[in-house]
Specification:
de novo design (two linked rop proteins); Tma16_sf; mainly alpha
Length: 180
């Protein structure tokens, strides 16, 4: 995919009749190159931030997608879903325990340990209030989830629901703003 900098450099080289080897520091062309480079950096930062925000949603979808394809089913019962959610919430427990045991006595918690603790606490808190998952209680939606190929656009077609620890199931909305 050509970037702004690449396109701008190509336009300037065509205008100058070949390679762009020497430009005056304050010339219009060098300013165009600097601005194109700054735009590319800005767009790259925005894309990485968006990817980081969307990662928890994609992880949940892939977790349930993997379970459904492994079992070759398109509908799950509440008890099975609650077990899956419990396993998803506590997937970082072993790593957290290892990091905690590796720390010397009397030392403060490492950054990794703090991050894992916050992640586990946030997931447990969300599970208490209502854990957002793709609606796997409906067979049609389960078939849609089985057809998931990894694209973000496909996620909007899948229905979502919230499952609380108490067993209450309610309709949920697509988490376009991220989960955590």
């Amino acid at each position: 995919m050509p970037t702004s900098l690449h396109k701008t450099r190509k336009q300037i080289s065509k205008k100058r009749g070949g390679e762009v080897n020497a430009l005056h520091a304050k010339s219009r062309d060098s300013k165009r190159l600097r601005m194109a480079h700054a735009r590319d950096i800005r767009l790259e930062k925005l894309a990485s931030a968006r990817t980081k925000k969307e990662e928890p949603i994609v992880d949940r979808i892939e977790y349930f997608h993997h379970y459904l394809t492994e079992r070759d089913v398109s509908k799950l019962e509440l008890s099975e879903v609650q077990t899956l959610i419990h396993n998803f919430v506590h997937q970082y427990d072993e790593e957290f325990d290892e990091v905690k045991k590796a720390r010397r006595p009397g030392r403060p918690a490492s950054t990794r340990e703090d991050l894992l603790k916050r992640k586990i606490d946030a997931l447990e808190d969300e599970y208490e209030k209502g854990f957002l998952i793709p609606d796997v209680f409906d067979e049609d939606n389960g078939k849609k989830l089985l057809g998931y190929e990894g694209s973000w656009a496909y996620l909007a077609t899948i229905a979502w629901s919230k499952v609380s620890k108490a067993g209450k199931v309610s309709k949920g909305d697509f988490p376009s703003k991220g989960i955590m």
